[in-house]
Write a structure and sequence with these properties.
heterodimer; A: mainly beta; 5-stranded antiparallel β-sheet; B: mainly beta
Amino acid sequence: GENVEQHPSTLSVQEGDSAVIKCTYSDSASNYFPWYKQELGKRPQLIIDIRSNVGEKKDQRIAVTLNKTAKHFSLHITETQPEDSAVYFCAASWGGGNKLTFGTGTQLKVEL
Amino acid sequence: KAGVTQTPRYLIKTRGQQVTLSCSPISGHRSVSWYQQTPGQGLQFLFEYFSETQRNKGNFPGRFSGRQFSNSRSEMNVSTLELGDSALYLCASSLEGSGNTGELFFGEGSRLTVL
């Protein structure tokens, strides 16, 4: 089955700096790669996603890149703000329904 | 539009008991998935239901089961509870039903503690 590895497990940055979280996946059939943000005590929420026919996608301060050959994808957050502090999960799916395999999460802390 | 609703929000059980958790998806969403969230393992997929049929299944023992009703509401059941079943159980619904994977809308979860 699919396996998703996520690094780093914790990340601390200064406000205004950029943050990068990386994930690798094992199943070359995977074609959908979302990122979810979970604030403390709250439900996970989708922040951005990318499908395998696209190499990069951007939404304001957030961008995701995908390298299908190397089977890895990354989340980039620019100009970080304190409200970006949360746990971020990457995930992968090969389709055939809404089954996601999640990475183990990255605790991002944005310090003032 | 109301979000995904899960009940109960908190519950405490003892080993050997069974538990049933309920999930009401967003109106119009026919896909309902269940995930187990623990500090060490992150989010682990349990199963997905679409139009009352189990469409996908994760790698959990048979003690974990689920079902979906004609109104898309879903329940999951865990029998013969073990200490390791203590976790936050998240339900998620999705509008996507064509077979592609779509955005998941999560509920707030049911936190199960097994003593």
